[in-house]
Amino acid sequence: MTDLKKMYSALLGDSFPLEMTISFGDQTLVYRKKTWKIPLADGTIDERGLRYGENPDQEAALYELVNGNLLLGDCQYIEPGNGLVSSIPVEDMVQVGKHPGKINLTDVDNGLNIIKYLVDRPAAVILKHNNPCGAAIGASVAEAYNRANRCDRIAAFGGAVVTSRPLDRPCAELMAENYLEVVCAPDFEEGVLSILARRKNLRVIRMAGITRLAEFERQRFVDFKSLIDGGIIVQQSAVNTIRSLADLKPATTTYKGVEYRCERAPSSREIEDMLFGWAIEHGVTSNSVIYVKDGCTTAIGAGEQDRVGVAEIAVHKAYTKYADITCFDAHGLPYADLVAEIERGRRDQAKKEAIDAKVRADKAGLPGSVMISDAFFPFRDAADVGIREGVTAILQAGGSIRDFESIQACNEADPQVAMMFTGQRSFKH
């Protein structure tokens, strides 16, 4: 049997070259492999590259673009030397823990991909396996992180956190209570690093470039997908163009000569949640449906094959996570542990029944949420899922032949549900 623990600790090097070049016609991009010289306890220096790929038996290397700038059509691409994930200097890996693997860095990178739309306010995104499991804004970075964490305490275990503001002591205290893999922030206030050091294997990364992320909103990068036969698909990265009320479109359509229009307009709060939710949706694997309320995710459904299915899965997740946080608040332990203790005769069944009743009564906190879909609803069934749970507004791409069905679902709801279109799909694979 393979010794996975030994494999994890042994893969400190790789077979990839120090330099790589990619040519687009007469334009050449030069990449240099990124390594870090890590001071060890015995005073020696250990030079390490990327720890491993998606699994410990996959060698991997991180390359930084060091020369060249790609010009294709009228697109402006991000230029070298912007100080983000591929160019983290060793001094900004302020607590190394175990040096990072591919998943750690791609989680941080997708966190930046989301938080670049939220840098004008305190915000936090928690990611797991390259999908956000909780995201929120708040009056402070501590409030934003706490709200994001409470959305899904279960998935946040072992996750990566990216914040839009320097970490302060209250936020660090909250983070130190959890098991996290990576914390990435633009800076750390005095005393924060000693708090985070309680978690010895935690990777702590300073990334000053977070404060400049808004500059990259409209800039693209080249996105590569390698195929099993060695071929590649090259595409431009996606850009989120839904940034204000002016970018939203009324939910209207004409079907067989009849015009259909959503009768209720969204409130200012619902519009804010639509814009917030679309920014989060930009970093969620498709097909996806998410629910957000008051600048915080309520539930995230990601990577499903059908839209009604992912809408239902997100609801199921909301109920599961709401039971967990309700139990934790009341009894200081996860809901699953409470159930296990009841089965062993160590807890009263009434405690579980009280939690279950609260979750049902509150509908897992979903009422008042805004439902966000990364593409159009092909039928009304997905909209009906959210409406049954009490969503008050829906944002979707629009453009389906049967848009009229979803509009009818919103108009028939009691009370009526608002809906807007983006006119933009937001797929991510």
What does this structure look like?
There is one protein chain. The protein has twelve helices and 23 strands. The protein has 429 residues and is an alpha+beta fold. Strands 8-13-12-11-9-10 form a six-stranded mixed sheet, sandwiched between helices. The chain has a six-stranded mixed sheet with strand order 16-23-22-21-19-20. Helix 3 (141-151) packs parallel to helix 5. The protein is globular. Mean pLDDT is 92; it is low at 4-12.
Keywords:
429 residues, alpha+beta, six-stranded mixed beta sheet, 12 helices, 30% helix, globular
Q: From the alpha-carbon coordinates, what is the Rg to the nearest angstrom?
A: 23 Å
Strand count:
23
User: Order of strands side by side in the largest beta sheet?
Assistant: 8-13-12-11-9-10
Mean pLDDT: 92
> Uncertain runs with pLDDT below 50, 5 residues or more?
4-12
Helix content: 25-40%
How many DSSP H or I helices?
12
Overall shape: it is globular
Beta percentage is 15-25%
Structural class: alpha+beta
Rounded to the nearest angstrom, the distance between the terminal CA atoms is: 33 Å
Largest sheet report? 6 strands, mixed
